[in-house]
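Can't attach files on this board, so I'm pasting raw text. These are the components:
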Amino acid sequence: AQSVTQLDSQVPVFEEAPVELRCNYSSSVSVYLFWYVQYPNQGLQLLLKYLSGSTLVKGINGFEAEFNKSQTSFHLRKPSVHISDTAEYFCAVSDQGAQKLVFGQGTRLTINP
Amino acid sequence: KAGVTQTPRYLIKTRGQQVTLSCSPISGHRSVSWYQQTPGQGLQFLFEYFSETQRNKGNFPGRFSGRQFSNSRSEMNVSTLELGDSALYLCASSFGTSGSYETQYFGPGTRLLVL
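---
Top answer:
C-alpha cells for the assembled complex are below.
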C-alpha cells in the first residue's frame, strides 16, 4: 500500500525567502505524484503533478517540484514566497489503476513579513 | 467551465441523525470521488463512483454510503451520525475513462458539524 510522509508539519519563512516543503512516499509500484494547496476554508487546488518524463515539474504560482525515484521523494520548492502563499500544502500519491489519492498529513506554510 | 460544486457548504446535525451531501462534477467528468478531512486523520479516501457504480472504496464503516446518478452527480450519505463524523467532506471529479489515474479536481467541500 502506498503512503506519504510530509516531513514538516509547519514551515515558517520570511517573505521573499526561498522555501522547500519535503515529501517522501512509499510504494511498491510506479506512482503518480501531486502537490495540492488548500487556502483557509477552501477545497484543494492542484499545484503540480508528476506523471512521467522530466523529473523537474513546474506548476502554478511559481512552484516547482523534483521527483527523485532513488530517494522516493517529491519535494516542493519556490525561490521567493509571498504573503499570499500562506496555506496548507498536501503531497499525494496514486497508483496508476485507481481514481484514489493517498495524502500526506499536510504542511502549514506561514509567511512572515 | 464551471468547477466542482458541493451543496450545502455548511451543515449542523446532532448525533444519531443522518445527512446527505451533494456533488456536481465538472461537465464531462464521469468519475466522482469523496474524501473526508479531519484534523486528526487528515485526508482520507471514502469511495469513488463511475457510471453510477461504486468502483473503489476506502476503509470506512457501512454508515457511509454514496450513489451516482445518470448525469454523474453524486450524493454521499452518512447514517447514525457520530461526533467523530464532524469533518470537511471533499468531492473530486475526473474523466475516469482511461483505465489509469487521471487528475482529480476538487470542490470547495461541505463542512459538517455533529453536536
